[in-house]
Specification:
Number of domains: 2
Strand order of the largest sheet: 18-17-14-15-16-13-19
Oligomer: single chain
Structural class: alpha+beta
Radius of gyration: 25 Å
Distance between the termini: 11 Å
Mean pLDDT: 96
Number of strands: 24
Largest sheet: 7 strands, antiparallel
Strand content: 25-35%
CATH topology of the largest domain: FAD/NAD(P)-binding domain
CATH class of the largest domain: Alpha Beta
CATH architecture of the largest domain: 3-Layer(bba) Sandwich
CATH superfamily of the largest domain: FAD/NAD(P)-binding domain
Bound molecules: flavin-adenine dinucleotide
Shape: elongated
Helix content: 25-40%
Low-confidence stretches: none
Length: 402
Amino acid sequence: MKIGIIGGGAAGLVAAIYAKTEENEVIIFEKKDSCAKKILMTGNGRCNYWNENQEKRHYHSENPEIVKEIMTEENAQEVLSFFDMLGVVSKIKNGYYYPYSNQASTIKTLLLKEIERKKIETKENFEVDEIEKKGNHFLIKSKEEEWEVDRVILATGSSASLREKDNNGYRVAQSFGHNILPLVPSLVPLVSARKDLKKWAGVRSNAIVSLWVEDQCYGTEEGELQWTEDGLSGICIFNLSGMASKALSLGQKVSIKIQWMPWLRSVEEGRDWFDDKKRNTHPLENVLVGFLNPKLIEILLKTAMVSKNQSWKALTEEEKNRVLNVLFSLEIPISKTKSLERAQVCKGGIPLSEIVPSTMESKKEKGLYMVGELLDVDGDCGGYNLGFAWTTGMLAGKGVRK
Ligand SMILES: Cc1cc2nc3c(=O)[nH]c(=O)nc-3n(C[C@H](O)[C@H](O)[C@H](O)COP(=O)(O)OP(=O)(O)OC[C@H]3O[C@@H](n4cnc5c(N)ncnc54)[C@H](O)[C@@H]3O)c2cc1C
């Protein structure tokens, strides 16, 4: 049997390694001049390739019950054994897996060495334009060439982080009758129309941030918030950005509320904290500088309409409420997200309901399999997106042999 893998990224390479047997010939068609290029960009060049915490809330999809069938404990063990087999020594930090070398190139090199060892053919600079079913075979076509194979694994990823808008993978899937759920950026900075944010650019602060859509809280994250020229960034924002993107694409009102004192859990605790004799007679500026960047203090107190030289004790009840409101739920309206080109992943894609989760085979076309980010699953920061790519690649590679 001849198996064609479209895309030599994370999912495609693992699929190829699993699909190759003595009897099966495997060819990877990759549009770039080498495979696994994106892997080098991951985890700031360190490749955060897995996460110990496999709670399903870290994966987002229109079909969360199918995600559970794919990301099982058994499959997780198999993926980790696979990396062990490749020779990857892991370093685990707060549950995040990295190669011990701290270099994404370790993962790329070991995957490509296995591709070579298994004598899997790679055809670089081959952009698949179209796939046609001819009897029991598939014709894989670029603008210049065509190849005939018996089975196809579509592993073209998404358009996230790429300059080119078009991703042929979606078009190929559509040509076999698949639907595409709306594609929007995820793990991406948010943009606000608020004009004074420029002053905060570059500032980082620990905070609890929550995403509000219309008048409903859609999610809360705690972590380091980063201020940009025109909005917000940081892992905590990235993890909320997919939901924000989707809501914005539906024309809904989106905002981020910020709680600047994450070690306290309620406004009442905040009031007690300021009431404490240790600090209630000190100028507010001196109290706030203990946990906030001076640039933030100025704007926050201006928003609360109180002077930085006043003490908490000297404030009226109304002023105290305004300070607490700004410190516990400052609202930043969000007008858009940065583009797909600036996003790490893409939300949306081929619905999981259109594939068989145990093998990743298409329910629309026998012999066609689909894996990785092309599917409607986007994960949080922390190794979930690569985790999904490896797992689905492994399932398809095994599935194609059946
Ligand atoms: C900056 C950045 C950092 C990231 N960091 C992490 C991280 O630390 N941890 C994590 O889990 N995830 C991370 N991600 C997300 C992760 O990289 C992706 O989710 C993952 O690579 C998806 O794997 P894939 O195989 O589905 O797609 P890809 O890795 O994108 O591979 C698809 C391949 O298909 C090729 N291709 C596309 N179309 C065609 C065609 N028509 N013909 C031939 N070839 C084609 C592409 O050139 C590419 O090589 C990061 C993403 C970015 C952009």
